[in-house]
Specification:
This protein is an alpha/beta fold. The chain has seven helices and nine strands, in the order E-E-H-E-H-E-H-E-E-E-H-E-H-E-H-H. The two termini are about 20 Å apart.
Length: about 250
């Protein structure tokens, strides 16, 4: 029996549950890009908030769950499409080795986020960057002008964050613009607070999101619903878009 989405509309399907239960039930070769920020497996806890209490340690951030998903992601992706996954320098080697079993690793983007966490002020340099593996199933063409692999995008203000590892929407939009088109279906198996889904709504992509933590799932639903009712450039040019049959039709 297939799992039904916990939230669904014309262009969005959101599942509250374990991605290892849900990914095998999605159709093979149905997704045009995977953009995700998985738990890094480093037992991370954000200490950057001043005005609000600290976030709890992320669930499944003490194991290598993310590595198990790579084989499922490969099956779900269409040919000549991209899997973009964020990674930590602490275990980037593990991600690279596992991803290489299934994908052509084309780039590692260095996200210069303009300031790191407080961490060990005496013995450690500030970690002011994160890594983004760009993995191809086949060969995926870059949309628009070719750019470099160091991306300067400011991080989310810690006091405004709704998730401990929340990524700025600017970097998600940049990924989607480089490796996806209007009406493409985008998957995020570690949805968190739904930033990838918000970016998909803004750019006119379809979206599947999976999040295990009910608290963050509810936040994601709220953010994605809100994004649907904000006017965007896509809405102005919607009539010019070419409709493509996909997962939701």
């Amino acid at each position: 029996m297939k799992i039904k989405p916990d939230y669904e509309d014309k262009n969005v399907k959101l599942y509250c549950g374990d991605c290892l239960d849900i990914l095998p039930q999605l159709p093979d070769n149905s997704v045009d890009a995977v953009v995700t920020d998985p738990p890094y497996g480093i037992n991370y806890q954000s200490n950057g908030r001043v005005k609000s209490p600290k976030f709890a340690v992320l669930e499944n951030d003490d194991n290598d769950l993310r590595l198990v998903t790579f084989s499922y992601i490969h099956k779900l992706l269409r040919e000549n499409c991209v899997f973009a996954g964020f990674a930590s320098f602490k275990n980037y080697a593990d991600d690279f080795i596992e991803a290489k079993k299934y994908f052509n690793i084309k780039n590692c983007v260095v996200w210069n986020k303009g300031g790191g966490g407080i961490g060990d002020l005496t013995h450690s340099l500030s970690t002011d960057y994160e890594l983004l593996l760009i993995c191809h199933k086949g060969k995926a063409k870059i949309r628009g002008k070719r750019c470099g692999s160091i991306w300067n995008v400011g991080k989310v203000n810690p006091d405004g964050m709704v998730h401990p590892t929340e990524k700025p929407i600017g970097i998600i939009l940049r990924i989607l613009k480089k490796w996806s088109d209007d009406n493409n279906l985008i998957l995020d198996p570690f949805m968190g607070s739904g930033t990838t889904g918000v970016a998909c709504v803004q750019l006119g992509r379809k979206f599947i999101g999976i999040e295990k933590d009910k608290k963050y799932f509810d936040i994601a639903v709220k953010r994605i619903k809100k994004a649907k009712y904000k006017p965007t450039l896509f809405e102005k040019s919607k009539s010019k878009s070419v409709k493509v049959k996909g997962f939701f039709e």
